[in-house]
Design a protein that fits this description.
single chain; about 180 residues; mainly beta; eight-stranded antiparallel beta sheet; six-stranded antiparallel beta sheet; 2 helices; 14 strands; about 10% helix
Length: about 180
């Protein structure tokens, strides 16, 4: 290789930007939120999980390969009504004593859904695992994510016995999250 060809290659390498690199992030729990809304007798019942942790793998060069994993301490649920929260932590609902954590993990490539990504994943809750995709939007800063999903509580045996009737306790649960990544 002659000197001219070598200098041309070095110049090209210097001016062509390097590809973006995938980054691993953890959730910043102090500025993140994991919320849900169910219903009772047709009225919305909002709540949050106070304790959860997770990680994300984001690659600006390959956003469809985005991956998440979230661990939720189900006993940390808070609907702003202590008596209801105790019922929800009990065996008929979340059974927080026997199943203290719920885990959602992405399990495949995301796909474009308008301005967002639709990411397939599974939720393990109360010992049952089912597909629960989430729709996410990655913030312009690359360090924040917002998303949502809807799941069927009866698929996870959440609300058994007297609580199984979807006319009383709605079957659809909406989940929303805002995550700050660090």
């Amino acid at each position: 290789m002659n000197l001219r060809m070598l200098s041309t290659l070095l110049l090209a390498a210097a001016v062509v930007p390097a590809p973006a690199v995938a980054a691993e992030f953890r959730f910043d729990a102090s500025s993140s939120e994991l919320a849900f809304t169910g219903s009772y007798d047709g009225e919305p019942v909002p709540g949050v999980f106070r304790r959860f942790a997770g990680s994300a793998r984001l690659d600006p060069a390959a956003p469809l390969a985005t991956r998440f994993r979230t661990e939720i301490e189900v006993a940390s649920l808070d609907t702003d009504y202590a008596d209801r929260d105790e019922v929800l932590r009990a065996a008929e609902f979340f059974d927080a004593e026997m199943h203290p954590k719920a885990i959602w993990a992405s399990n495949g490539d995301c796909r474009i859904a308008g301005p967002s990504l639709e990411c397939p994943g599974t939720l393990t809750l109360k010992g049952r695992t089912h597909d629960v995709p989430v729709t996410i939007t990655i913030g312009n800063d690359g360090r924040s994510v917002e998303g949502r999903s809807t799941l069927k509580r009866t698929a996870f045996d959440v609300g058994e016995g007297d609580w199984a009737d979807p006319e009383t306790v709605g079957d659809d649960i909406e989940v929303r999250f805002r995550l700050k990544l660090q």
